[in-house]
Prior knowledge:
Number of helices: 9
Order of helices and strands: HHHHHHHHH
Distance between the termini: 111 Å
Strand content: under 5%
Radius of gyration: 36 Å
Helix content: over 70%
Largest sheet: none
Number of strands: 0
Amino acid sequence: MEILVDIAFFLGSRPAEWFRAALYDWQTLITGVLAVVAAIFSIRQVRQQIDQTAQLEVERRARSFSAARARMPAALDKLSGYCEEIGNLMITIWPNAGIRRPLYFSSEITIPKAPESVINDLASLIETTDNEAFAAFLATLISKIQLIDARMRDSRLLEKISSSKTTVYDRVLDVAELNSFVDTAFAFARHEVDVPPGDNEPYRISLALSRYGFDMGGHRDLHARCAKKFMPDHALNTALNPPS
């Protein structure tokens, strides 16, 4: 008790001197503590800013994806029309293919052009989607558009067709496969399903061939090639390509 009284007397008699002395003796520690506290508050503020920025970016990407998805049906319609044009051209040329002389109506043939805006719309979806499978699906779709466009613009295309019917089958299989990707994507584009496609549905290739006029009755060899290439494990392949 006497010790406490002495301390109280000491503090009461010389408070200013004691405070200055304590401040001087402990200033380094006090400065360090204040620095740590300030750092903690700074870190919290930075983290809040980072989280807020990240959330804004997520929201921005979501809006961009929604906008790109809204353009998707129109883009797929254009792409479907492009496929139909090539398919119809091939069925028109078919009777004169492989005759080993210039196609008599070659001057009247107009090679369809791939719609440029479609690639830009699909690329926008790739940039904004968080679904890796869907991004890969779209990348494959774009690459097939570019490949088919290059093959259709081949300056020797009509010459090759006049020499071999196989060229017609090759090109129409190309476009039918592209058409299957387009048909597979329509359900998601139209909001009929919420899960974006991750791969095409091969059976649609055979349906596209028939839609162009290459039905199974008149073009069994083409459908057999289609089944063997795209549906090796399907019953249709076994039926059209029986084991020897």
